[in-house]
């Protein structure tokens, strides 16, 4: 052990300290900057209209043929809070943390998740 | 290249290959935590026998190891080839540019850092292609690399000392023998 | 010696350079509202641009077909046929002809359990507004429901409905056929693997980039929470899978469930099953037979499935699960079932 310490130069020690601080700082910064990486994307008529981070709470309205559809993002989940379409299926779907909510009369697709995350456990499509 | 050099490279490569193999046998708690034991041999070769020897030893180790495991020219070979090449080059350059400034530990840290960075870039190109994931993983890998780098550097330092002392003793002996024979 | 090693390394680099030049294929997915439902297309492609081009082309194939057979649009070929019922044959496109001929084939095979002339009956129901037609009205329209009264002239490519008031409704088969058309388009665009999902009518082909089969979830007809959304998972490729269920469009009145799959013989919702999933080689058969089997019920349905040479998972009205032998190894049921 003694020889190891005697072998170490001042530059070695400084480099070591620098690397440790920089990487620890990097870990904290990257964690804070993107804790989830999740995204809420709203498409109207098949075109991407809005994209928001899933970890920022907000409420916003999207215009459509049946009036404004109110979408809420809260606690890393999203829902259609208010819709004025005839059957309000999208409202009934409630909170989702992944997948899509579709409002056909308003032609609005709200999808939650990163880019096509595909692990073997997840399903690629659902029938029924 | 002299016969002695070839012999030396062969022996060092064998050591490096053995460490490379042992490392694959040791289970690690985190999948991407590699001890980088073979870097000890590269570092010792660099300090004692120069840059060219160190580079040759690294290349031979990487290529032979991939041939043994049947991954030659595959993605994992590209990863270790790129990592080995970059880290050896970085250590060699640092050693030459700042002679005496860094000891084995500092050099090992430089090597570990560049090894990891090269592998991260290659992993991004070959597998992941998600820059968000890279942001998260890079500091973690650099931190782990720093810790293993210090350990490897310390071992390399001890080895270099021992080998130098042995060499010194041998020369002293030779001189003494010569004197006696005269 | 030195130069030889340098040359060797150089060659090695060249090999590496070229062997890694091609981008690794990944999965791309897009969702669009089409044909009054949600269509998702997934492809395995080398780049986002390549995927986007193929997917958009497939979407436009589906949109075009959907416009031709739209029950509610005045401009569709289907409404032209319906308006001219009892009057004159109507010339139609090859796609419309194709889906009608297959609808008749499935009607014949199932002895009328599936019938595309269900239009006059289904038109009277509104499952969103919970409107149930009068019993007398249902009875009155029943004679108009008979697939044998569809007259096809294949050479002239015309379709004629014999009686005035008859109406074709291809809702029970069109999405499966749309998936077939879109998949053919993707193949033409040199896409080697992917999924076309027109709502629950799915066709999968090729393998995922990691060399595994596609995972298709089968919906639980009596879902209670987010956790039990699926009743089973199917691992397959180069197959079509479709489900007909009583939970898609329905209302409950006095404890009775009224859903959108009508029995052509009675004009009322078929009551013997909760859901039927059919796995076949083509989307149009999976879609059509899932409806036919649903109406036929578990026993007759099993016979029908065996004759047609397709595989099925039938969940009867009490929640009992019936499967064909071919399902084993392809479908795994979730733990609670």
Rg of chain B over CA atoms, rounded to whole Å, is 18 Å
Strand order of the largest sheet of chain A: 2-1-7-6
Seen as an oligomer or otherwise, the chain set is heterotrimer
Helix fraction bin of chain B: over 70%
Order of helices and strands of chain B: HHHHHH
Instruction: Report the total helices of chain B.
Output: 6
What is the overall silhouette of chain A? elongated
Beta-strand content bin of chain A: 25-35%
Helix-and-strand structural type of chain B: mainly alpha
Order of H and E elements of chain A: HHEEEEEHEEE
Chain pair with largest interface: A-C, 21 and 43 residues
- Structural class of the helices, strands and pairings of chain A? alpha+beta
Q: What is the total tally of β strands of chain B?
A: 0
Determine the mean pLDDT of chain B: 87
Counting DSSP E segments of at least 2 residues, the number of strands of chain A comes to 8
What is the end-to-end distance of chain B? Answer: 33 Å
End-to-end gap of chain A: 67 Å
Rg of chain A: 23 Å
What composes the largest sheet of chain A?
Answer: 4 strands, antiparallel
> Strand portion of chain B, in percent?
under 5%
